[in-house]
From TrEMBL:
This is Cytochrome P450. SUPFAM superfamilies: Cytochrome P450. Heme binds at residue 427. Its cofactor is heme. Pfam families: p450.
Length: 481
């Protein structure tokens, strides 16, 4: 039990009660129509229970117990805010497409990410920022990045996997994804600057869902300080690239920041300000750094005990490799042939979604399944509430990539597979993540076999899933490769 967190929360109770009373003053009482459940203690609510469940990897049970007790719509309090938990495909659709809801991160995440990030924008501002980011992620742009990703992956394997008997997967995958993102998003070459930024981002995620008490010994303070250092580093990078853009010395295709600096509207005005570019570069780094590294780590974890799937993947990648010259980089067309590998990735995402869930806020009084959700309340959606639903996925605890072989014939209703979210806010970096994953797995499965070093094959969630001890494995080189 995290007694320090409990103590900090209790200290904050007295000062926070008055704030909550001000926020709720004047609201018409509709208690009879509110969802079932309890808001718990002021400020604390059920926050500590959820955090404990995440850290012990019992969050699925924690959510299911609430669903079993109260149904698919229930009320609770998380991170100092009244919240409604919703579950099921219809609830997911409501979450992703309702104009009565806007994104709402916990207060800790809002402080860390800043007010200009896409995760908390809505309406015209959200469309403007998302449109700018998608300019960098267009298919014709992505095709140009395959060679860069290929080079980063090969270099990573030569430096960190070759001539090793054991490796620890999770930190290596984080290093790899950070290197890829640093090159393509920020145009950063290897060196002290990239290493410092990597160190800061290791700490940023620690406080994203923490109780937002800014004291020296809290995870929130460490995360806040790390995000400040990272923001200053990206501000310096943005200034340097801005000078190159204005001097005609930079190509719009070279990296994300240069691309965003180059975008103008019909009046010749820049689409994004420097502050917006920095804020959304941080979001892009967090999203791309952690989610893809988690996906690849858990694919490696699964393949260690699934020789049938691994053998099928090896065959798929050897077929691609035999038609290429020695040392020739992968292409966009090669990635399109890796259909089985992406099905394995999808099934991994179904069973271990990198993001536990997300919040929205009610912009007005709304009704869902006959229940009243007051304006200003949070709405929480979780991926596993549908991913592990036996009425949607037959034997949901069984790893079965064939579920995604012919999705048009699948019985799963819309908004059942949601590792990237859905609707207008679906993750814009899906294809980028797919590219990184496919290129990396191509070289790993062709060159290595592995087995788990730990007898216990467990993982925990400290916001994001992490396998025991970072997933140490014993590796051997494939003689055929």
């Amino acid at each position: 039990m995290d007694y320090l967190a409990i103590a900090v929360a209790l200290v904050a109770v007295v000062s926070s009660i008055a704030i909550i009373q001000l926020l709720t003053r004047g609201r018409k009482p509709c208690a009879a129509n509110l969802p079932p459940g309890s808001l718990g203690l002021p400020v604390i609510g059920q926050s500590l229970g959820l955090l404990r469940a995440l850290r012990s990897n019992t969050n699925d049970q924690w959510i299911q117990e609430r669903i079993d007790r109260y149904g698919p719509v229930s009320k609770l309090s998380l991170f100092g805010t009244p919240t409604v938990l919703i579950a099921g495909p219809a609830a997911n659709k409501f979450m992703f497409f309702s104009s009565a809801l806007a994104t709402r991160q916990p207060r800790s995440a809002q402080r860390i990410l800043g007010k200009n990030s896409i995760v908390d924008l809505h309406g015209a501002d959200h469309r403007r920022v998302r449109g700018a980011l998608q300019e960098f992620l267009r298919p014709d742009m992505l095709k140009m990045y395959v060679r860069t990703i290929d080079g980063e992956v090969r270099r990573h394997i030569d430096e960190n996997w070759a001539n090793r008997a054991t490796v620890t997967v999770m930190p290596l995958m984080k290093t790899l994804t950070f290197d890829v993102i640093s090159a393509l998003l920020f145009g950063l070459e290897r060196g002290a600057r990239r290493d410092a930024l990597a160190g800061d981002f290791d700490h940023v995620m620690e406080g994203m869902w923490a109780i937002p008490v800014n004291l020296p010994f809290t995870a929130f303070r460490r995360s806040l300080e790390a995000s400040g250092r990272a923001r200053r580093a990206l501000e310096a990078i943005t200034r340097e690239k801005k000078e190159k853009v204005e001097g005609g010395k930079a190509s719009r295709n070279s990296d994300l920041i240069t691309c965003l600096l180059s975008l103008t509207d019909e009046h010749g005005e820049r689409v994004l300000s420097d502050e917006e570019i920095v804020a959304n570069a941080i979001v892009a780094l967090i999203a791309g750094h952690d989610t893809t590294s988690i996906l690849m780590t858990f694919m490696i974890r699964q393949l260690a005990s699934d020789p049938t799937t691994l053998a099928a993947m090896v065959q798929e990648h050897e077929e691609i490799a035999k038609n290429k010259a020695d040392g020739e980089a992968l292409t966009w067309e090669d990635l399109a042939k890796m259909k089985l590998t992406w099905r394995v990735a999808q099934e991994t995402l179904r069973m271990v979604p990198p993001i536990f869930g997300n919040f929205r806020v009610a912009l007005q009084d709304i009704e869902l399944d006959g229940y009243f959700i007051p304006k200003g309340w949070q709405v929480l959606w979780t991926a596993n509430a549908t991913h592990m639903d036996a009425s949607i996925y037959h034997e949901p605890a069984k790893f079965d990539p064939s579920r995604f072989e012919n999705q048009s014939a699948s019985a799963a209703p819309p908004c059942s597979f949601v590792p990237f979210g859905g609707g207008p806010r679906i993750c814009p970096g899906i294809e980028f993540s797919r590219m990184e994953t496919l290129v990396t797995m191509h070289y790993l499965v062709r060159h290595f076999t592995w087995k788990l070093s730990c007898k216990s094959d467990t993982f925990v969630r400290n916001l994001l899933p992490s396998p025991l001890h970072g997933l140490p494995i014993q590796i051997e080189h494939r003689t055929s490769a």
